[in-house]
Amino acid sequence: MYTHSSSSSLHFLVLVLISSLIALAQPTLADTYAGTTNAPPPSQVAAKVFPPQTHICKDPATNCFQRNIACPQECPMMKPASARDKGCFIDCNSVSCEAICKNRVPDCTGIGSACYDPRFVGGDGVMFYFHGKTNQTFSLVSDTKFQINARFIGRRPQGRNRDNTWIQALGFMFNSQTFTLAAKKVAQWDDLVDQLVFTYNNQPLTIEEGHLSTWVAPDGQLTVERTSTRNRVLVKLPGITEFYVNVVPVTKEDDRIHNYQIPSDDCFAHLEVQFKFLDLSENVEGVLGQTYRPDFINPVKRGVAMPVMGGEDKFKTSSLLSADCVHCIFSSENSNEETSSLVLDPTMVVDCTSRTSNGFGVVCRR
């Protein structure tokens, strides 16, 4: 027969057992994702190692046809989960048929770049400046299948005989489509605010903020991918071109070094960009495009601190989306015609460890 004391002890043990079972069912502090509806992103699972991505080159016209190229362990993913990590780049036309690791941002010392107070590195490896003029647009590339224009902003400091200019916007024309991207006018720069604006076929375009957020045109031709939460994108037109864009301000340090005399109400937010061209004709024109022609003889003076490329009169357009410069060859009506294409070497890089490189006279610092 149970005593009152025995009954109380049994009741206490039952309560303890029930409490223990409830506690086991609750997520602990270590269960970071317990109780959530979404599984953790694979790239954020601790100690998880993923096999490197691979790519089989299927185009018979490429140098690495039928080769299965694997990404290195240092950059196993083509689109890394973190914007700070390097991505894996596989080019089926590369000489070595090996993947390389690169940051997914413009390389301002690399072939096809246009940065700063516009400093370009041409397809021939020669660095040059093209100043343009404030609030005017110029053709960077004009070819049979597409055209890319740039709008310049700037100001003329007191005592100077020319404008300091920067690229504020790009206008992209291909077939009968148009795309623009531009940096907003900003008084005080804030890294936490997106300063990019877009249009597609003259209509405002919104691309959701967030690393790897992607927009695809209705016809599937053009894609725009954010390579950071904000202010950095990759624009791709398959088989034709792709380019990385970064929005930056003129910093106080830049202003101090170069005496730009930047006003307090405008930090001159501008674009850094690097183009990769996949299909150019032998007649390609434009400030940058002409430097890819095999017959182009670069007129800039080598070995000087600021080699300047002229041609404002040849490449000036009436608007960001016009192909009416003197040397422009793009026409939307003729963009589908077959033309002789250049054999491009996308692996070309520029060594910027000294004032000159490989006889090209590349200058990496002003």
From TrEMBL:
Segment forming the signal sequence: 1-25
Highest taxon in the source lineage: Eukaryota
Pfam families associated with the record: Root_cap
Keyword vocabulary terms for this entry: Signal
UniProt-listed InterPro entries: Root_cap (IPR009646)
This protein's name: Root cap
Organism of origin: Papaver nudicaule (Iceland poppy)
Source lineage: Eukaryota, Viridiplantae, Streptophyta, Embryophyta, Tracheophyta
